[in-house]
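Researcher: Checking consistency across runs. Here is 60S acidic ribosomal protein P1 again:
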Amino acid sequence: MSAELAVVYAALILQDDNVEITSDKLQTLVKAAGIEVEPVWFSLYAKALAGQDLKALLLNVGAPGAGGAAAATGAAGAAASTEAAVEEAVEEKEESDDDMGFGK
């Protein structure tokens, strides 16, 4: 088992028992499981998960968020405006060639 996975499982256990996720508690659970993990992982995960509701995070995995929808809309709008600009540039070039007698 990887070190990161062991710490994640420990965090899930603590969350399930409604216990605050701290570096010391993560380390205690992982050591009880007999898995060797570098101490830095415990503090990293404890800081990252501080104040987070893991249950809500897990239930919302894959659910579209407002930020994702706005980004998708923005990207679609940017693509449409880029496409329109390219079409306009092509039309202008064709008109320019026709004006000089090259289009015939």
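Researcher: Does this match what you'd expect to see?
Model: One thing to look at in this run: Residues 66-99 form the longest helix (34 residues).
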